[in-house]
Design a protein that fits this description.
The chain has 350 residues and is of the alpha+beta class. It folds into two domains: 198 residues, Thiolase/Chalcone synthase (Peroxisomal Thiolase, Chain A, domain 1, 3-Layer(aba) Sandwich); 141 residues, Peroxisomal Thiolase, Chain A, domain 1, CATH 3.40.47. It is built from eleven helices and 13 strands. The strands form three sheets. The chain has a nine-stranded mixed sheet, with helices on both faces.
Length: 350
């Protein structure tokens, strides 16, 4: 049974500022801190490799003393809008109707809502009452690819069906105003908000990029490397400085056995669709792939244009490839990393 990715669409939230425009807000937030520390923080923002980011809140709201409840209310209100916009845009690209969807997956880790956003999408778009829904809430940056994997497995078992994966993230809603740690500062410097939707099909009449295989890879004893800690003010970022080194150490085991299982080698991969976790992670992976004469230029550009939008980001990279005129039969490797610590992989044929 062949499963194909039919369309991908991104949706940006309403507020946007360049990094240069954000720096005055950062300086105001740092009032009272030591001058040397201030200079260090500003250099982190300037050197993060992110030129612009988008947000569900304007900059002054991000740096206000509002509560976790107030921020989460904004998250709930805005992801409902972003989810609908992203799904409608993807459906329009594929020329499908909302009632064509058999399986609806929503992924997000940056806010809390019950019912999950898929319930609102079903109501707002009058989707079928028997649509199967799956909210994925705790897989972080890897969840965009995880959602594709779950959808592929559902479609493989259900011929002639269609699925939607909607990724919705607002890392800016998790910014901790009273936390001057490097983790909070670095995450604020690299993250932005965004949404995306990918449509998949096991209907032979639908065109698209073929999914050859998929797999997950879990690091042992690495649960401390990435995630969120629940605190009274919301979700406090956990981001270990050793993440790039751990990725490098596990890289051969992540890539080569997966490709070998499909009788492929990295030399045969034409396109790398990699999640831009941050400048250091991107540089690490670029060095690893560069030694194999591969580039991740689209990944770097997505980080520059939008920042790391957690689970949605890799779908922004995927959309860029879907919009190119790629020769039939060329191969792509989609790869993302997330809490656990884990790597998610999908092998594609254009």
């Amino acid at each position: 049974m062949t499963v194909k990715i039919t369309s991908v669409a991104k949706q940006l939230p309403p507020y946007t500022r360049t990094t240069a425009e954000i720096l005055p807000y950062v300086e105001a937030w740092l009032e009272g801190q030591e001058p040397r520390f201030k200079r260090k923080v500003l250099k982190i923002f300037e050197g993060a490799g992110v030129d612009r980011r988008y947000s569900i809140m304007d900059a002054h709201e991000v740096f206000m003393k509002n509560s976790f409840e107030e921020r989460n209310e904004i998250y709930v209100r805005e992801v409902k809008k972003l989810g609908r916009q992203a799904l409608e845009k993807a459906l329009d690209k594929a020329q499908w109707k909302p009632t064509d969807i058999d399986f609806l997956i929503t992924v997000s880790c940056t806010g809390i809502m019950i019912p999950s956003v898929d319930a609102y999408l079903i109501n707002d778009l009058q989707m079928r009452q028997d649509v199967v829904r799956l909210p994925v809430t705790e897989m972080g940056c890897a969840a965009g690819v995880s959602g594709v994997i779950y959808a592929k497995n559902f479609l493989k078992a259900n011929p002639g069906k269609r699925a939607a994966v909607v990724a919705l993230e607002s890392p800016t809603a998790t910014f901790q105003l009273d936390d001057y740690s490097m983790v909070n500062i670095v995450s604020a410097a690299i993250f932005g908000d965004g949404a995306a939707c990918v449509l998949l099909s096991s209907d032979p009449q639908d065109d698209g990029v073929k999914i050859i295989d998929e797999a997950m890879y879990h690091f042992y004893d690495a649960t401390h490397m990435m995630g969120f800690k629940w605190v009274n003010t919301g979700l406090q970022m956990i981001l270990d400085k050793d993440v790039p080194e751990q990725i490098a150490a596990h890289f051969p085991a992540i890539v080569h056995p997966f490709l070998k299982k499909n009788n492929k080698t990295i030399e045969e991969i034409d396109h790398l669709i990699f999640h831009p976790g941050g400048k250091k992670i991107v540089q690490t992976v670029e060095e690893l792939f560069g030694s194999l004469n591969k580039n991740i230029d689209d990944t770097k550009e997505v980080l520059t244009l939008y920042g790391n939008m957690s689970s949605a980001t890799v779908l922004y990279v995927l959309e860029r490839f879907m919009e190119k005129e790629i020769p039939k039969g060329e191969l792509g490797l989609m790869l993302s990393f997330g809490p656990g610590f884990s790597a998610q992989r999908v092998l594609l044929e254009f």
